Amino acid sequence: MACRANSARQAGWKWSGQYRCAGGKFRDRWCSMLAYSYPRRYDSGLSVHCFGSPMMSHSKVSPLCLHHAGQRLALLPDMGGGVAAWQMECADGTLVDLWRPWDGQSEDMYSLASFAMLPWSNRIGSGGFACEGKFHAIQANRLGEPYPIHGEGWLQPWRASQLGDGVVEMHLSSCRHLGSPYEYQAYQRFSLVDGGLDQSIEVCHQAAQPLPYGLGLHPWFPRTANTRVLADVDGVWLSASDPMPTSHSITFPHGWELRNGISAYGSLIDNAYSGWNGQARIDWPERNLSLTLRQTAPLDGELFCLVYRPPAGETFCFEPMTHPINAFHLKGQPGLRLLHQGQRLRLEVQWRFHELDK
Q: Out of 160-164, 210-214, 302-306, which region has the weakest mean confidence (pLDDT)?
């Protein structure tokens, strides 16, 4: 594969030898060359261990790191259960960023490579939502954003454990965070496999009162001049200057036709698409690289995705999710699942990379 990408040093990572973990087995230690400033608002006061090796005090954070199947994955349990980097190794030792890597310094969660959206995704309008005759207020949760956004799992510390080579699970127990009505257990699982990454998020409702749930994933992708995105969809929710949807259309604005493939550069898109078939592809011709996505759960009901294409900058987003923006206030609440105590909702995706010309 033609790997025209940053070297490991340019990407901000280096190998610092090996350490012995439980059972006497040696593992590579993948450490950052950057000083990781730990956001105080997420400070749990706990140390994070990279599979047996202490790597963080309560005032600084280093990623929990995996090296398996020719890939490197760095996770940040205490930073909202986010991802610092997902990279593919080339034969010459260079690394290709499959998701835009965290710079190791910013406290802005939008600077992470990816994070999970739960117990709902994207934005909620009208200050909250009603369920079974009761209104539940939801607070705005991001500076400069008038609406609550992306749920609350990304705003809380998670706990992580290794389940096998290349496999990590993270767990969150959340109870009415920031005054929300949600009480739930949440899980994230990352499995590095040959040719890619299997990823899942899951919630289990704990409260006696049922509530509507939704899930989503928010990866950030690097974009080159010729990057293209392809997904089979049949409609899009349109909006005005406010990002909340105002109408649904089966006619796409120029340059928004995902099913024919669109450029990763162009006019602003911050919109949800309907009728998605659960598969997508991102092509980087300059790197002779393609990344595919396949959603494997849930498969009941309609599937949704979102594209965020800012007019400027070096990144964009393609987000698999179980419901569109502001679904709480759309007719029929598309994609939301009403969970009773003990019921679960799970989102599973498979990411696979390959040479573009094969």
A: 160-164
